[in-house]
Design goal:
459 residues; alpha+beta; Uridine Diphospho-n-acetylenolpyruvylglucosamine Reductase, domain 2; Uridine Diphospho-n-acetylenolpyruvylglucosamine Reductase, domain 3; Vanillyl-alcohol Oxidase, Chain A, domain 3; 8-stranded antiparallel sheet; 5-stranded antiparallel sheet; 13 helices; 26% helix; globular
Length: 459
């Protein structure tokens, strides 16, 4: 199937090109936009299969877009074909009896929370409601409930995958087990997932949410308190520390904490932070789904708005030392002084109880980051277009000033460097799991059609 007319007429969905009313290449990160030749909006897995075969027959670069939330450009293509699942394949169905969620590949986590919480159930999802399920899941997947339920990949029961030759396969512990192993951490290297089936967990309606805004001079006291707090951190408790700009551009440190319990329990777990004298304390009880909108507050870079220049750069934090927070504060101050257009950028460090994640053997899934390290993320944002060619180097310099040695990173915080080159970055990311991934890649994608995210070279 090589002609556009034949391809278009065979679809239940829609194929568009520049100038058509439905053609849409916008992304959450403005710098991740590429001008695709065709954008396909499939209705089902069969449409996805046809789009893959059309791209291959016409030797066109292929990209898969779910939520379009990444900053690396992996969901975009210059002059190629985008299979955009988000427009027409975004449904969520809950099986209350079996405690399963059937989620199409273009759905957003907010939709999953909304559907499942009607039954008092929850999937282990991300921390931002408007991120897509696909990228987060196949890349590993941390969330506020990681301490209790592990990673998203640990809660995946099965998936429907469309492979490079157009086959529509079910991957699970009993069917195509090698493919199931690979997509749980191996990203989009093996084909788009048109449906995920997640295990659901009983979830209380309301949780405790700590939100405290401090002036930067409180950093040493916060560091002391985090060191003590971490020693007794429960599985039900998590914390994000955000170095950002408050209203008016004034630097601040935002503590966002969660306790999956009562107001009284939550206040007890975070009372020592409240005693440090925050500038503002908005801690409260809230409905569980609202926590995944928390990082869209004006203190965290207006994260809900699409179309701004953004780049993620991550690093693992092997161990917490009390000087770490001071280094983060100084690194952000220097960056904003040197590049004032980056003033809305944030640096975030996440603290989850890691026991559940580490309890799964490293080689049980493709995800290789089960060492209990914390995630550091530079969420770089800039308003001066002339900075765009330089932001990747800026992000490297900032992160290196905080963590001087190479510690690896969480793949979902990719800065896009993986789109341009060989397998060196992928080998580092997947570690001991890389050889098996390369072998599975050869079986399901020998021509390396899917190569947009930490590309695995077929063995």
């Amino acid at each position: 199937m090589t002609s556009l007319q034949e391809f278009s007429s065979s679809l239940k969905g829609q194929v568009t090109t520049e100038g058509d009313a439905g053609y849409d290449i916008k992304r959450w990160a403005k710098n991740a936009v590429r001008k695709a030749k065709y954008v396909v909006y499939p209705m089902d897995a069969e449409d996805v299969s046809k789009a893959i075969l059309f791209a291959k027959a016409n030797k066109l670069d292929l990209a898969i877009c779910g939520g379009g939330h990444g900053s690396s450009g992996a969901s975009s293509t210059e002059g190629g074909v985008v299979i955009d699942l988000g427009k027409k394949m975004n449904g969520v169905r809950i099986d209350e009896e079996k405690k399963l969620a059937y989620v199409q590949g273009g759905a957003l986590w907010g939709s999953v929370d909304e559907a499942s919480m009607k039954y008092g159930l929850v999937a282990l999802g991300g921390v931002v409601s408007h991120t897509g399920v696909g990228g987060l899941t196949t890349g590993g997947g941390y969330g506020w409930l990681t301490g209790q339920h592990g990673l998203v990949v640990d809660n995946l029961v099965s998936a429907t995958v469309v492979t490079a030759n157009g086959d529509v396969l079910t991957a699970s512990d009993t069917e195509n087990t090698d493919l199931f192993w690979a997509i749980r951490g191996g990203g989009s290297n093996f084909g788009p997932v048109t449906e995920f089936v997640y295990r659901l967990h009983e979830q209380r309606a309301e949780i405790y949410f700590a939100e405290m805004i401090f002036l930067p001079d409180k950093v040493p006291q916060i560091a002391n308190e985090i060191e003590e707090w971490s020693k007794t951190q429960s599985a039900e408790t998590a914390l994000h520390l955000v170095f950002a700009a408050g209203p008016g551009g004034r630097p601040c440190v935002v503590l966002m904490g969660m306790h999956n319990g009562s107001l009284e329990e939550g206040e007890a777990r975070f009372e020592n932070f409240a005693a440090l004298g925050p500038l503002l304390n908005k801690s409260r009880q809230m409905p569980y789904p609202e926590i995944n909108n928390a990082q869209e507050s004006p203190f965290v870079n207006h994260a809900a708005e699409h179309g701004q220049n953004r780049l993620f750069k991550g690093a693992f934090v092997p161990e917490f030392d009390k000087e770490l927070l001071s280094r983060i504060k100084l690194a952000r101050e220097k960056m904003v002084t040197d590049y004032p257009a980056t003033a809305q950028s944030a640096i975030i460090i996440e603290f989850y109880n890691s026991e559940k994640v580490r309890s799964v053997p490293l080689e049980a899934t493709a995800y290789a980051g089960r060492h209990g390290n914390r995630n550091l993320c530079l969420a770089l944002s800039w308003t001066d277009e002339s900075l765009t060619p330089h932001v990747r180097q800026i992000s490297k310099d900032v992160v290196a000033s905080i963590i001087p040695r190479e510690t690896g990173e969480y793949g979902n915080l990719s800065d896009g460097e993986t789109l341009e080159g060989g397998a060196e970055k992928s080998v580092a990311l997947f570690g001991v799991n890389y050889p098996r991934l390369a072998s599975i890649k050869k079986r399901y994608d020998p021509e390396n059609v899917f190569r947009k995210w930490y590309n695995i070279i077929p063995a």
